[in-house]
Write a structure and sequence with these properties.
There is one protein chain. By secondary structure, the chain is of the alpha/beta class. It folds into 2 domains: about 10-155, Response regulator (Rossmann fold); about 170-230, Arc Repressor Mutant, subunit A (Orthogonal Bundle), CATH 1.10.10. Helix content is about 55%, strand content about 10%. A 5-stranded parallel sheet has the order 2-1-3-4-5, with helices on both faces. Helix 6 crosses helix 8 and helix 10 crosses helix 12. The N and C termini lie far apart (about 95 Å).
Length: about 230
């Protein structure tokens, strides 16, 4: 009898499994966005096995804005391989104002990191990042923290100083190479690719690639938006 009573007393005073589950902190809820199905399914599988994040969904850029309304993630994991990806963060944050966006497959270049910052991205994982790096970037973004190289941190500070000085959008154009700046000026004049190629004595395919890079680096959707930029002489 005394043994049974003692056992009942221990059961009454110790936490039951259900209580332990209720007291455990909830995992950050993430939604994976990538135009490549294989990438998003692979990342979803790896993150699920890793167990530090809860993947509540995955889809393409076209699907993401509709689905996040229903599943309400805390963090959007965004594949930057597609040029359209940079338009997603601000649109998503109009739906979920507290949403954090962490980009992956980011080239560790000053221009690409600046493009992420200007698009409203909270953190990034470079091309050679691991699943553990993705998890760390998400957890840091949840705490409003960002990991980047000293060089990138210095550039971000300099960009803030430039913007606060009232020099407008002109500094954005400095992210372009000299050739890209030359082509951007011609685009701003309304010249089509064929005429630009003839004027610079380059192939049409080369001009097309440069235009793609210019739009991506400046986070623009259409070539007509280049005309709004102010280029240094």
């Amino acid at each position: 009898m005394s043994g049974a009573t003692s056992g009942q007393r221990l059961a009454a005073t110790g936490p039951c499994p259900a209580d332990v589950r209720r007291s455990a902190p909830a995992l950050p809820r993430v939604y994976v966005v990538s135009e490549v199905r294989l990438y998003r399914e692979g990342l979803t599988s790896c993150l699920t096995q890793q167990g530090a994040l809860e993947v509540v969904g995955a889809g393409s850029c076209a699907d993401a804005l509709g689905y996040i309304t229903d599943v309400r993630p805390e963090v959007l994991l965004l594949d930057l391989v597609s040029r359209e990806s940079l338009a997603i963060p601000r649109k998503a944050m109009l739906i979920l104002p507290t949403l954090r966006v962490v980009a992956f497959a980011v080239a560790d270049l000053v221009t690409d990191v600046l493009a992420c910052a200007e698009a409203g991205i909270s953190g990034y994982v470079p091309n050679d990042g691991s699943v553990e790096d993705v998890v760390a970037a998400v957890l840091r973004a949840m705490n409003d923290e960002l990991v980047c190289s000293p060089r990138v941190a210095s550039l971000l500070f300099r960009q803030v100083a430039i913007l606060s000085s009232g020099r407008g959008v002109a500094p954005i154009a400095t992210a372009l190479t000299p050739r890209e700046r030359e082509i951007a000026k011609l685009i701003a004049r309304g010249l089509p690719n064929k005429i630009i190629a003839r004027e610079l004595r380059l192939g049409p395919a080369t001009i097309k690639n440069h235009v793609h890079n210019i739009l991506q680096k400046l986070n623009l959707q259409r070539r007509g938006e280049v005309a709004r930029l102010q280029f240094d002489v």
